[in-house]
Amino acid sequence: MSANRPAAVMILAAGEGTRMRSATPKVLHRIGGRSLVHHAIDAAQGLNPEHLVVVVRHERDRVGAQVLEAAPDALLADQDDIPGTGRAVWCGLTALDARAMAAATVNGHDRETVLASEVSGPVVVTSADVPLVDTALLAAMVDDHVENERAVTVVSARVPDPTGYGRIVRDGGEVTGIVEHKDATAQQREINEINTGLYVFDAATLRGALASLTTDNAQGELYLTDVIAIARAGGSRVGAYIAPDAAAVEGVNDRVQLAEAGRALNRRIVERWMREGCTIVDPATTWVDVTVTIGKDATILPGTQLQGSTSVGANAVVGPDTTLADVEVGDGATVIRSHGSSSRIGAGASVGPFAYLRPGTVLGDGGKIGTYVETKNATIGAGSKVPHLSYVGDATIGEQTNIGASTIFVNYDGVTKSHTTVGDHVRVGSDNTLIAPLVIGDGAYTGAGAIIRHNVPAGALARNSAPQQVIEGWVRERRAGTPSAEAAERAAQNGRLSEAAASGEPVSSQEGNATRGEQ
Ligand code: UD1
Ligand code: CA
């Protein structure tokens, strides 16, 4: 990490991002579970700058809210009507100086000290649309700037296709300026060393050069890039730091580039976890947010997405084809082909295949949420199992309890949601309907197919399925001519045949053949 702490980092985020064709401002589009501006803020904060300022304008309230969520101490600087990156930096610097002077005033300094307290030293400028830039790159840029005693350092990159970017113009190897693509001559457009939009400026040099920018260019904007030539003409030392990895400084201007940056970021994240000791079988189809953690010897199978604050414990197995958002997976647990959010899965527990864990699901150690089971706001104790085809909503289930297949916790009467409590070591029969509010005591049993409307005391058996009625011959009589009636007829004949065989009576061969022929 850089020993050179910058006075300030300024992130430009005022542009609209028209090429995204979106109602959402470009810098709020997300990759790796974070907005682009949040990525820029994370990288900046790694430098531990004295001040962090973000220049906003388009959708300033939405962008500003995201900025302050990511960095509560950040200063929001509003860009005015005058367009261009040069104006954006001027607005940012003015806001920074105002803040520094206000602080000096509060501290009771005299007028001269207050006026002299404007920001000085290295100021880093980055864009909110270069999400793969990390702290290491920014630190290397600041170190290069300080070591070479420059007043201006621009980060450049050599790229195969420089279309659209500003070009670094050199004279005998020395950087003399930057020319924007739209202003470049045919000859300048051949230059494949581009401006990445990352800079370090000496604050005083920057302040001076910004004052002499003009809009005399193809876009009628104040270009920050003109500061390079202006500073050089004024006798300042300017130069370029060539980015070691051109892919890491690519900007996002449209959704194709957004997806490319997302994949590159994901690749970086999954490689990090593999190096930490986690098996990721297919990095290309495993998507992991920057905020996720994965334990040692965990295995992530193909088609899996781990999002938000999800954490996967050591030796756990997740996937294939599983999406978990804000889910804590305990050590040694398995989660197969499932979807979960805001839930906790205990150590050694098993989930899926085809389970749906909605918010508030807490599965105890060694517990099971099996196949075609949906849970919501449900605590399922250690060792308890909901193995098949069930809905468990608004419930607390004790330890070592088994919920029979196809049981529904009826939590909603159309107006209110009610809670069901099931004790320890309970055996709920298959196909039960448990109508909340309800309490089933420890060790109780319920019969198959029961509809449980009233509390069941500990240790009791509750059953209420109606006695079975059997009406012999009903199908042959009331559904005559149907395949069911024919099947019933054959069964009756077979019954007579086997009765006859048992009693040793001769059997009509015609009847026997007809029966067999239909099988
Ligand atoms: C800019 C550079 C170009 C460089 C490229 C790298 C200028 C004039 N050009 O071009 O040399 O190769 O970045 O990606 O600087 N912004 C504001 N206020 C504005 C305009 C832009 O805050 O008035 C912000 C945008 O939100 C964005 C950043 O500045 O985060 C860059 O703006 P953008 O319009 O994308 O500049 P480019 O045309 O890419
Ligand atoms: Ca850009």
Describe this structure in words.
- With 519 residues, the chain is an alpha/beta fold.
- 26% of the residues lie in helices and 28% in strands.
- The chain has 12 helices and 35 strands.
- A hairpin with a 2-residue loop joins strand 8 (167-171) and strand 9.
- The longest helix is centred in the N-terminal third of the chain and has 22 residues, at 85-106.
- The termini are far apart.
Overview in brief:
By secondary structure, this protein is α/β, with parallel strands linked by helices. It contains twelve helices and 35 strands. The strands form seven sheets. It has a 17-stranded parallel sheet that branches.
List the helices and strands and how they pair.
Blueprint: E1 8-12, E2 30-31, E3 34-35, H1 36-45, E4 51-56, H2 60-70, E5 75-78, H3 85-106, H4 111-115, E6 122-127, H5 135-147, E7 152-158, E8 167-171, E9 174-179, H6 186-189, E10 193-202, H7 203-210, H8 226-233, E11 238-242, H9 255-275, E12 279-280, E13 287-288, E14 293-294, E15 299-300, E16 305-307, E17 311-312, E18 317-318, E19 323-329, E20 334-335, E21 339-345, E22 350-351, E23 355-357, E24 362-363, E25 368-380, E26 385-397, E27 402-403, E28 408-410, E29 420-422, E30 427-428, E31 433-435, E32 438-440, E33 445-446, E34 451-452, E35 461-462, H10 474-478, H11 483-503, H12 509-517
Parallel strand pairs: 1-4, 1-6, 4-5, 7-11, 12-15, 13-16, 14-17, 15-18, 16-19, 17-19, 18-20, 19-21, 20-22, 21-23, 21-24, 22-25, 23-25, 24-25, 25-26, 26-29, 27-30, 28-31, 29-32, 31-34, 33-35
Antiparallel strand pairs: 2-3, 6-10, 7-10, 8-9
Bound molecules: uridine-diphosphate-N-acetylglucosamine (UD1) and calcium ion.
Uridine-diphosphate-N-acetylglucosamine binds at residues 12-15, 55, 79, 83-85, 87-88, 127-129, 165-166, 178, 180, 194-197, 223-225, 251.
